[in-house]
Structures are given as structure tokens and as C-alpha cells.
Amino acid sequence: MDFSQSYFELFELPQRFELDTDVLARRYRELQMHLHPDKHAAAGPQEQRLAVQYSAFVNGAFHTLKQPLPRALYLLNLAGWDKERVAAQPVAGDFLLQQMELREALERIHGLVNPEAGLEHLQDELAAGWSEHSGELSAAMADEDWNEAAAAVVKMQYLDKLRSEVTALENSLLDS
Amino acid sequence: MALLKILEPGQTIAPQQRRIALGIDLGTTNSLAATVRDGRAEVLQAPEGGVLLPSAVYYGADGLLTGRQALARLGDSPQNTLQSFKRMMGRGREDVAHSGYRLAKSEGGMLRFDTAAGEISPVQASAEILKALAAQGVETLGAELDGVVITVPAYFDDAQRQATKDAATLAGLKVLRLLNEPTAAAVAYGLDSGQEGVVAVYDLGGGTFDISILRLHRGVFEVMASGGDSALGGDDLDRAIVDWSVSELGLDEVSDTQYLLALAAARRVKESLSEQHQAGLEIFGQALSLSREQLEKLIQPLVKRSLRSCRRALRDAGVSSAQVEQVVLVGGSTRVPLVRAAVAEFFGREPLFSIDPDTVVAVGAAIQADVLVGNKPDQELLLLDVIPLSLGLETMGGLVERIISRNTTIPVAKSQEFTTYQDGQTAMAIHVLQGERELSADCRSLARFELRGIPPMVAGAARIQVTFQVDADGLLGVTAREQATGVQSSITIKPSYGLAEDEIASMLKASWEHAGKDLQARQLAEQRVSGQQLLQSLQNAIGADAGLLNADELQKLQAAMAELGNLLNVCEDSAALKGAIEALGRHSEAFAARRMDATISRALTGVSIDELDAGKVGES
After folding, report:
1. How far apart, in whole angstroms, are the C-alpha atoms of residue A164 and residue A153?
2. For position B110, what pLDDT does the model report?
3. A93 inside 8 A of chain B by CB
4. Is the same domain home to A91 and A154?
């Protein structure tokens, strides 16, 4: 297997942001049905070792393409944008301001009489922001406007980070 | 009447002899083995009767006993009658709060029990259980075993998995796969019912709790998330009863020996209360009475703890409890009525327990073992499992840099680049960690190794690529490489809580010497088996894909095979045989790669045809 081929080539899919995840999932399952080490457990040691490498490559490819954010980062990478360059892409000041407000709201939740309602409100706002910026990302990707795409990715990364903090807080509230 | 089998015309491969494989559920309280015979999975009878072998080993001055015979010595020799050692696999002394056992004073590494037969690690005790089950298999099936699948809790970390594999090595078994217990249970149920959709497996065993959320789709079992607690199980329910008894009786101090005996009494009353509403218990030499209601109050916090893990697993899987179409109960502790009721309430549906929760894991393991050993090459069964805990490295300031996140599908390989901190730095200490916390001190230490020979450069100039690879057993391998010079680390992984390779070798040697076997003869026999296996697998590969080789390549490969075949008959030197086997392996590497590549194009061609049939092409 050619490990330098792109993940899109591996699954024989067109190299673009919009993709049919059902087709992706089906091709993934079909590849693993043949490549997974379990399918080569009775084979010689060389074949077993290759099966681990191939299967790991297919897993990495599938999980990269399955989710929009890693998929976008991957496409940017193919277009010559490494992680550092994406991260350095400036985003609008009002977005950052809004992020600070959301972050403050998160910090206030512990003191609320009804923290669940506060969490739910915050999650709704994050979901709204997410769908707005993923719309921007799709449009920028379709135009191959890498600057805009990178800006949308940076915003989505901000939201993603905040979302995981909200989840962590929710877990700690559930546990207490 | 069974139908006679007829070969396909032109089939060249001689029909292989059926291979013998066991599925082994190596449990905290009980262990058992199952196998597939005539297309049906069956649980093996234990020599002592019943199917469960108590996971107990007696290490006395007067010899070694396993199972019920070992348990019979609990009364007169509790410190030498080891139980629940699964909970201590891959663990250090400081990890275990109160075992009741005398532990050897060791410096770091895995804890060891101090018994009349010397210091015993949990790996050795587990190996004795595996040996007993394997012997039972050989006796029942009348043939040597070709391999085993051993189940482990899904939430087991790398050290615990490695310890389990080491136990199998000590027992002289070939491990086809370490399989997660909930996944095994899902296989047993899923294949039975042709179930599709999202399934939750709630597995409360003697010492561990697992929750797995799986998606079943046309024979593919895809684990979406797994979670749990490798220190929560029936044992903890027993402890709760013992603690209650201590305060009820107003006891100030309890000796370790009394404690071990009290745990056995607590287990009995717990089991009675699954059937009755009130039961008496004889504990610390006194009589007490416990009602089911009181018991439920005692264990409520533990059950709640398990439900928190369920909630987290659902979230990780990205599904709601309403989307879960089936809930499967596994493990003896799910017989407790409160546990069943709590699970039913949490998922909003009655859980399945049509297969005995004590045997379902072994049955699933047997089904998988039958496939892996090569008896069912065309079986449309694929298990895509995940790692339960994130893997990372310690970086400056004691922080953890995560390389592979929990719930990533395995096998997986990921790399990340690191650099040096000081000018002229020529070595780098690599500390591998597992866990979800941000500080390395809060995560489990798996291993340490050093990368040496980095050319001196200014700080930050070196590019050290560290690669983590997790195989299908969930076991981690780490390599490090300096990018500019290609210096590969001389990795001597020192497992933090495991047995080093030379320790295993010397234990193996000791056990053979003990059994009066000749080490040389044993090694030679092993090399012959592995040589024959290699020749057989190459023979099969040529039978199936000779077209991938040109006449010259085919002739060279066959000549090399004939040479090894000859050597296997005449050579008496195991080291020379090993070298010849490895040489043939290298020789056949390119052929193996071509076969794999051919597999890929076949796989995708198949999909394209499917899509044409389904009218799918063009919609993407």
C-alpha cells in the first residue's frame, strides 16, 4: 500500500470538503473486512505485521475524513497549510469578544441556582456558533479560499475547546 | 443428517485439518473456557464439575492447587490461598489499598504476594488458572491447542493487558487475540440474533466494571465508546457488607486473616439475597442478619458509580439512551436485583440476559477464536474495538501531551514531533503515560525509555518523531527517531508495573526445570512448530495468489521453502532454525505486501459493485 497516497485516494473519493459519509463508512468497513489483523491471524508473521500497519492507516484515514473539522484541517494541509499556519490565521475581533463572554458565562455556572439551565443555554449558543462557522467553512472550501477556510477552522477550534470544557463541567456536576 | 462436503472443482489447497482454539474468560472470581465444535459454541466442563473454575490458587509449602481445591484451603491457610489477583495485574504495591494478603516488600514494579511457596506475582497466579483451563481443553478435545483468545475488561490499561499476555506466555499458550469482555458478549448475542443497531453492554464482574456502546452492522461490531472502572465489581459489594458487619458488631480491629474469611461469608450472603429477601450470615464468629433492603442501601453508591460511567460512555459515543436498542447484561454481579433494576431504569428498557451472564463472555471469545485460528476464513465477522484510555508522553513541567485519545479505533498509529530543551542535548528521556488527566503524576506510568545519540544541536533544532502504535490487542509499542540523522532509539522499555522480558524468560525456565523438561528440547520443538506454521501459511498463500509472482520469483520462494522444510527435519540447533525461519520471513515480505495490496483492490471493487446495485454511485 502506498502510504503517501491521500486519504481521498485511498477511499476513491473526490478530494473535496463535501462528501457522502455513508459511502465513506461503507468503503471503510469493506476495507477493514479484508485488512484488519483479525483477517490475517492465521497468516505468516510478515502479513500480520502488514495488516496492523494497513489497518491502522485505514483507521486514521477514516476518522480524519469522517468529522468536518479534522477533514478541513486535512484538506488545508494538502493545500500546503500546516497546523501552525492555520493557527496563525487571524479571526475577527468581535468573534474573540464573543468567546470571552461565553467563557465568562461558563465560569459563572458554578454559582448559579440552576446550573443545568445555564449549561443548556451555553450548549445552545455553542451549537448555533458551530453551525454558523461550519457554513462559512463549507462555502470557503467550495471556493478553495484557504484564508477564509482557515479562519473558519480557527473559530471552530475555539468552539470545540469550549465545548469540551462545558462537557467536563457537566461531568463534574453530575458526579457531585 | 450432516451433509457431505465436496471441494470446488480445481481447488488445489488440501482441506486443512480443523484447528483447535479456546475462548478463555479469565475472571476475577471465576474463569472458564469455551470452544466451537461442529459449528456450535460450547462451554467446557471443569474437572471438578460445573463449568466455572474459581480463580483461586493455593501456594502452600505442600504444593500448588487451583480452583475449588485451592478454595478448600482458605480456612486453614488464607494467606496462601490467592484470590481476586486479577485486580492486581499490572499494579504496584501502592495501588492496592487493602488486599488482606501479605505483600512482599518490593522496590517498584508489580506487587507480589508473600506465600509459603515464595513470592508470587499476580501474573504467575493467573498463569496457573490458564494452565488448568488449557489442560481441561486438551483433555476434552483430545488434541493440542492451536491458540486461545483471552478476554480482558475493556477498561484494562496497557499494563494490565500486557500482564495478561505475559500470563499466557508463562502458561505456554499462543494468544490469538486479547478480546474485550463486552465485545465478546456482544458477539455471543449479536450472532445469535442477527441484531442491528446500537447496543449497550453493561458488564459488572467480580472485580471490574465495563460499559461498551457498540454499533452492529452486517457482521461488523464497531465499538463507539467504552468506559468503566477497573476497580469496581462484586468484590466491592462484598467489602461493603464486611465494613457494615464490622461497625454493626462494634469491632475495633480485624486481622487480615479474619478479613479474608469475612469476605467469603459476605459473598455468600450477597448471593443468597439475590433470591431471598432476608438472609443470615456467620461473620467474625458471630451471627448477623441482613435484609435485601439493607444490602441495597449499602451498595447503592457503587451502582450509582457504574451509572455515571454509562452516562459518560453514551456521551463519548454521541448517542442518547433512547437510541440504544438493546442492553446486554454480563457478569455474575448483574444477578443482584438492584443492579438489574438500576440498569433498566437508566436505559429505559429491560436488559437482555437470555445467555447466562457467567458464560456469555467465554462463548463470544470461543466464536472469535474459531475465526482467528483459521477455521472460518469467509466468516463475515469483524470486531472494531477501541482503546479505553488516552496515551501520551510527559513533557516539560510534568504535563502530558496526548498522542492517541481514548475511544480511538484500533489498530492505530500516530506520530508527533518533539524537540530538545537545552543546547547540545544528546539524549531524551521518554516517559509513556496512560490516562485522561493533564498532569503526568495523575496518569498511569506505563514505561520509560531513552533516546540516545541525538547529534548536539542548539535547543529546539532537533526533530524527534515519536510514534505510538497500538495493535489489535490494545497493546502499545513506541518508537522514537531523530529526523535529521535517522538515529533510532535503542529502546529498552522498562515497564513501570510489569515483568521485564528477562524476568518472564527466567520464570519460564524455572517452570520447565521444575517440570523436569529439557529447555533445549522445548525450544527446538517451538521453533519447529513455528517453522511449520510459516511453511503452511506460505503454501496457502501460493495456492491462492501464485499469480502475483513471476515464474522466477515463485521458483526462488519455493526453493527457499524447500530449504527450510529440509532444515526442519535435520537441524537440531534451535538458534539456527530461528535464523532460517526469519530469513524465509524476510524473503517472503514482498509477496505478503503484494497479497495485501491485491486484497485492497478486491475490497473496493466489491464495494463499487454494491453501490451500482444500490444505485448509489453518482449521489456522492
Report:
1. 16
2. 83
3. no
4. yes
> CB of A174 within 8 Å of any CB in chain B?
yes
* ipTM, 2 dp: 0.88
Q: Which of B267, B25, B291 has the alpha carbon at shortest distance from B149?
A: B25
Q: Does B305 touch chain A (CB under 8 A)?
A: no
**Cα(B226)–Cα(B203) distance, rounded to whole angstroms?**
11
Beta bridge partners of B280: B289
In this complex, is the C-beta atom of A39 within 8 Å of any C-beta atom belonging to chain B? yes
Domain total for chain A? 2
Helix (H) or strand (E) segment spanning residue B42: strand B40-43
Q: What span, in angstroms and rounded, lies between the C-alpha atoms of A152 and A68?
A: 12
Catalytic (active-site) positions of B: 25, 86, 181, 203
Residue of B517 and B498 predicted with greater confidence: B498
Taking the C-alpha atoms of residue B248 and residue B281, their distance in angstroms, rounded to an integer, is 13
Partner-chain contact A52 B471, CB within 8 Å: yes
Q: Cα distance from B371 to chain A (closest Cα, Å)?
A: 8
pLDDT-above-90 percentage for chain B: 39
pLDDT of B391 above 90: yes
Of B217, B600, B620, the CB nearest to A13: B620
β-pair partners for B333: none
Enumerate domains of chain B plus CATH numbers. Answer: 21-193+358-375 (3.30.420.40), 391-499 (2.60.34.10), 518-601 (1.20.1270.10)
Quote the mean pLDDT of chain B.
85
CA distance A148 to chain B (A): 25
Q: Do A32 and B541 touch (CB under 8 A)?
A: no
